[in-house]
Structure formats: C-alpha cells, structure tokens
Amino acid sequence: MSPVTHGLISWLLATSGCRERRDRLVVTMAGLAADLDGLGIVAELATAGSARPLPWYSEYHHWLGHGLPAAVAIAALAAAAGRQRWLAGGLALVAAHLHLLCDLLGSRGPDGHQWPIWYLAPLRRDWALIWSGQWPLASWQNLAITVLALAVALWLAIRQGRSPIELVSLRADAAVVGALRRRFAPG
Asked: Does this model's pTM top 0.85?
C-alpha cells in the first residue's frame, strides 16, 4: 500500500488511544518506518548502468524493515520517544504490524511479482509470509482502503477537532478542522 495509506491507518490507530500529539506522531511514524528500507532506491537508481550498481532497493526493500526484529526496534524507539511510553510503544508495535499486514494484502507488482514478508528478517530468511490472493499495489482495493481511511479521518476531524494535518502544523490543522466544521458539521 502507499505511504499515504500507511500514514492514515497509523494515525487512526494513534488517535484512538493517544491523548498526546507527540505520541500520535510517534505511532504514525512507526507505521511508516518499515518503508525506510525502500530508500535504497536512490542509490540503486543513481548507480544503475555503472560498473558497480548498488541493488539496495531490489535486495533490501521488504527485507530490512518488514519483519518482527524491525517492528520490535521501532516499538522500542517509539516507547523511548513517547510521553506515555508503554502506550506509544505498544501502539507502535501494532502500527508496524498493520504495515506488514497491508503489504501482505496489497503490494503485488504490476508484473505479478508478490512481495513476501520475511517475518524474521534480517535475522533469518527461511520463513516468509505470502498470500496467493495478494492484490496489485495499484488496485481498487488499496484505493478503497485509502478513501475509507481518509473519510474516517475527516469524520474524526469534525468530531474530535483534529486531523492528520496536526502532525505537521497545529495552525494548518485548526484551519482544516474549521473549514470542515463550517461545511459539514450539523447545526
């Protein structure tokens, strides 16, 4: 699934349990952190066609950050950074696993390649989770999940007075929430 989808799902999880904005940020970032192993695409594209190409994306995306060891490390970092440490760490562990579940469900490539989840990686490469029904990354299912998560986030913005924009700017969030309430709030 896309980073937007992972971010929305993680923020929805965070907003369901965290009172502190900082903890919501930490949990949302935990839900996105698995894809840091995809940054190797920069080196891979920069060295493509050279004498020594670096296959850092091809080899390491869905390998370094998409397993239990990374999820535990992400949760530990979240617990250290959060105000409500146990809550932030626990929700970060759930957010990291939601990322894995979403990728397991909907990350098949356009060529039909299925992304396995090497759950014990990078420690071991002998056990993978794969689902034969994995739908393509650019599928209606992923789009529907994104639209649903966005709709819930907008509904929460009207009801609770905060949206995912709060993670970037409280002032912008207040403007978005105000506009949504003026347009859609009952009364």
From this structure: yes
